[in-house]
Design a protein that fits this description.
Elements: E1 2-5, E2 8-11, E3 16-22, E4 32-37, E5 43-49, E6 55-57, E7 65-70, E8 75-80, E9 89-95, E10 107-112
Parallel strand pairs: 2-10
Antiparallel strand pairs: 1-3, 3-8, 4-5, 4-9, 5-6, 7-8, 9-10
């Protein structure tokens, strides 16, 4: 079971923190990630977090987004700062492997300029 939350509507420059609470997934055994989908377009990776703590970010979010996890709470986070209109999308958590397979229904982030 996956519960994604934290999405909403913000103005450009604002911040949001997304959460993905899971059950039955071992954070110590799986690399985790956030992906997003703009309506009418395909899924794309946003960032990933390997089990050893190494992170990956796509260029467009570097310096603005931070992925983290709380293994004790089985929760993955995405702190998003200085949001831009092009960040508008539905955000999903997933294991960091291909193909991108979202766990839940996602949470919508809308950034207005």
């Amino acid at each position: 079971q996956v519960v994604e939350s934290g999405g909403g509507s913000v103005q450009a420059g604002g911040s949001l923190r997304l959460s993905c609470k899971t059950s039955g997934v071992s954070f110590s055994r799986h690399a985790m990630a956030w992906a997003r989908q703009v309506p009418g377009k395909g899924l794309e990776w946003v960032c990933g977090l390997y089990t050893e703590g190494v992170t990956y970010y796509i260029d467009s979010v570097k310096g603005r987004f931070t992925i983290s996890r709380d293994s004790a709470e089985n929760t993955l986070y995405l702190q998003m700062n200085n949001l831009k209109s092009e960040d508008t999308a539905v955000y999903y958590c997933a294991t960091f492997s291909t193909p991108i397979t979202p766990w839940g229904k996602g949470t919508l982030v809308t950034v207005s300029s």
